[in-house]
Design brief:
Layout: H1 3-9, H2 11-15, H3 26-39, H4 56-71
Length: 74
């Protein structure tokens, strides 16, 4: 996947592009991890507890991203 695709899929990261990962929220770090993984064009992604410790609203957002990845065949 290309950077433009990633920023469309993860618009929150586009707004935080100049922010160091170390100061991002837990949800933003999870999105960044998925984005970095997808940039490598994987055939398979294994995810363990992607929503642990996240706010309920962010849990829902991460779930939407995972469903979108499934829809895309990843």
């Amino acid at each position: 996947m290309k950077l433009d695709d990633m920023l469309q899929m993860f618009p929150n990261l586009a707004a935080r592009a100049d922010t160091p990962a170390g100061v991002m929220s837990g949800g933003e770090k999870q999105m960044l991890t998925m984005c970095r993984t997808l940039m490598g064009d994987p055939e398979l992604i294994m995810i363990d507890e992607p929503t642990e410790g996240l706010a309920p609203k962010i849990v829902e957002l991460v779930g939407e991203y995972l469903r979108e990845l499934k829809r895309r065949g990843i």
